Amino acid sequence: MTGSPSARERRGSDWLLPVAILALIATFVRAIYFTPPEAKQGAAQKIFYVHVPSAFIGLYVAFGIVAVAGGLYLWLRDERLDRIAASAAEVGVVFMTVVLVTGPMWGKPIWGTWWTWDARLTLTLFIWFVFVGYLILRGAVEDPAVRARYSAVLGVLGALLVPFIHLSVYLFRTLHPMPIILKPGTPSLPGNMLTTFLMSLISLLLLFVALVRARYRLAETLDALEDEDMAESPVASLRAESVR
Amino acid sequence: MPPTIEASGLTRSFGRRVAVRALTFAVHRGECLALFGPNGAGKTTLLRVLAGLLRPTSGNARIDGVALPGGAAARSVVGLISHQSMLYSALTALENVEFTARMYGVLAPRDAALRALQRMRLQDRADSPVRSLSRGMQQRVSIARAIVHDPRVVLLDEPYTGLDEGGASALSDALRSLKASGASLVLVTHHLGEGLALASHTAIMRDGRFLTHEPRGDVELETYRETYREAVTR
Amino acid sequence: MSARIPPGTFAAAALIARKDLAIEFRTRSAFLAALVFALLAIVIFYFAWDATAVSAIDLAPGVLWVIFTFSGLLGLHRSFGVEEADRAIDALLASPIEREAVFLGKAFANLVFVLGVQALAIPAVALFYNLPLARVLGPLIAIAVLAAIGLVSIGTLFSAMTANTRLSELLLPVLALPFFVPVVLPAAQSTARLLAGRPVSEAMSWLRILIAFDIVFVVACALAFPFTLED
Predict the structure, then answer these.
(1) What pTM was estimated for this model as a whole?
(2) Nearest CB partner across the interface for C12, out of B54, B100, B103
(3) What pLDDT sits at residue A16?
């Protein structure tokens, strides 16, 4: 764990990022030009290919990593786990912001409203708040060990919160009937659209992993620099301490 | 009899920063270890480890035979005094000390609290809210709080800070009588004179290590001052 | 050395709760601030309300439970403030009591605080909005207690984490509010149902969520608390 990362590592990104971007471009081309528009919703429905995979990655993959890495950190106290959690949180926030932005973009042309309390959108909104709180907490705590512990606690508790928000939103929507929008659901997709959807999911997942790795390396470099600073302790000024 | 405080290779680090480095020492019944050293030497960290507030990173330490981290068993015999008062300013002196007595399970906590305040010559201000007391009196309350349960180990982090003549002499008397009844003391202070007056052993700490660790013997204050200066400027 | 037995976890928690309440009672400032805030907010909401557009029974539950949350946050903030001021927390942690006792004691004191504010705020809401409280008083008290338990579990734990950070007053609400959703939503929805004269059984589906939340998070927060302490 000691020692600065090598020059190649310091560059941050690696082969994965260009691959992910290429995959994304291929997916978008396919989605826009080669996948038929959905019967009822028209062209706007294509946002679905970005919206749903991003929600899956932000809510379950990113948040899952934050919670699990946090829990493991509390057990093992390995600072690498904290770094993974923080990187996943930052990238996860971006993905969830995409969900929250594409939701209205999708909803407005179809239903005329910018926001709906759609189950997935609402859950994303609340977990987005938890993520943002997580990042603000990390910014407010200076001591790295304290920061790691607090973040881990928040991450684990946030994971416990998810089912309760699910339940609350579900019960709310059941008792207050609302139009079901932002469909179609994934299992019932016709073959063509399913393929595009899977392509989108995989390329976004690659992008997520590439970004998390880049962010992790950046964190590693910053921590290494901080340690070098601390190693040169100002001994001289301590020696000047006089006694009565 | 086994020492009341013993440490062997005791280390405490914070991430990569090592605050206490493989310390080995022992303090027996009735002994007082006076610990001197510049700021940042790790003295406060050492006391916090012995008090059970921090766990050792590696190495061993025992308080009254209980290995650290010893949980309730180790903490119940330790009294801790620091330069922060650790009091609740809205409560009275007596309420503060009585609360601590109850936390340690002292029988007849109220009486024990009054006795502790008497030892620190504060019985007249027992019912004053702490915030209405001067800094020096608050420190006396804090000391009463730390000794109300007759601890076998007393850890003191610059306890003379803010004390006037009366307070300082009350503290020294209390510490002497604790020593006489068999308690072990670790006294961190910048005040060489006060430290030497109570010490049976002295140590100079820097960068997490003991530069010197020896019985107090008959060394004169001025001589020791020189020893100290040499040690920390080497 | 005198023979002594340090108090067990619940006994220690009771002592700490008593101590916290004694401090609060001595100064009273936080309680009064939270209460005045709640009453002011109720009044302001009242004047912002268009009675022809929304009926009292539709609006009041939301007002009640939102104000409950924010006034509760005001009180929660000071919970660890007294421990940080002169590092009294060190004396607590250096004593033989279990760390969980600190959490339980403080959470209980916070519970009394929050319920105290509610005891005055709920009648105020009933007064302003002309709500038929009498027949739903029993269930409403039960909802208030359940909601308060959820609120103080999260609030006490997060208060421990935010007490010595920068922006502590802002950070506590930012972190805690998403966690209050499964408290406020069931509380408001079941209160609305009760006020509309529906039987208690209809509110039960909401209350089940609240009860489950309480059970899970009281345990989770008590277990998480030691991790917020330096070790």
Answers:
(1) 0.88
(2) B103
(3) 82
